[in-house]
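Researcher: Structure prediction, please.
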Amino acid sequence: MSDRQWLNSIRRELDDNILGFWMNHAVDERRGGFYGYIGRDLSVNPEAGKSLVLNTRILWTFASAFRLFGDERYLAVADRAYQYILEHFIDPEFGGLYWMVDAGGHPLDTKKQVYGQAFAIYAFSEYYRATGNEAAFRQAVELYDILERYSYDKEYKGYFEAMTREWRETDDNSLSEKDLNEKKSMNTHLHIMEAYTNLYRVWKSEQLHGKLKELIEVTVKHIVDADTAHFILFFDEQWSGKSEHISYGHDIEGSWLLVEAAEVLGDEALLEEVKAVALRMAEAALNEGIDTDGGMFNEADGDGTLIDSHKDWWPQAEAVVGFYNAYQMTGDAKYREAAERSWRFIESFIVDKEFGEWHWSVTRDGKPSSNEQKVSPWKCPYHNGRACFEMLERLGGVTAAH
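Model: Predicted structure follows.
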């Protein structure tokens, strides 16, 4: 399809199906903020807890939408998310944000999961970009200072996964039930890098410049496997790998986030090094992680044997951006074709044409999986919304309104 056709398809999907769904269905009018759980059939569990990840991702998404399009409806949702986070997630005693609150907004899990703090930095800095809200800017910088004070590993570099509410060491590191209980992870570092990149856009701090550069270098040196060009997923303090699983979605997501970080940093030598690494990651993801229908598998074992042939919603979104990013770096048409095939797969199988938004996952034969989550602690408008924002900008279809 032509760039214009693709742009039109993406804009319709973003406005009518993704952003429209969250505005029409996710707002909790009775208790404030947004529902913590909605099933595929739009059944709401009003008693579900509300996660930091869900709420910061909603804030980031709708702040971005307002920044790009200037639509006051998007600003209203961003304002709602920001106020709810301020009132219910911020820890007034020890700083940082709780991991989970209950349906009424009371602290439910007070652990300081660093991944969640990173998403708050990402969201606050984006809200500031969109609105000029100085308080959000200060909160992003304050969170950055807290992470550097408590989570940064001064001996081996990188960041620890989690701390107690009081910012003390903990043995409870796991991000979710499927994650290993290790001190460091690819996932947390990827999203700290993403957060610091966005913060650096609005705060040209010399210290932040150094920290972002170090994060990029740590990722290239320790987290990307030099032999396979796949991410290693878990580590001990000294960067010894603790997992051989391959996550294709994280690989392709990381390939473009690394390039974005280096571009925003402005270090030309590092950017060239990163582009070479990112291209190897995209190539490996294309050769090993894509099915004949254009969909991206979830996970494989270290030898490439599929251990999860389902196709979750978020790797498909990241594949569109990651492969198009590889096309922009190389001009090689195979990457543009891969990005377009990913988009066509999304349109054909991932978009929920009955109830709206996207299915959590489909099986290898394209049928919706048994996972019914439409809104949940992890099912948010961030991956699919961001993929649309990125592609609209990369295809030349939008210039920021703010």
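Model: The two ends are 30 Å apart (CA to CA).
Researcher: Thanks, that helps.
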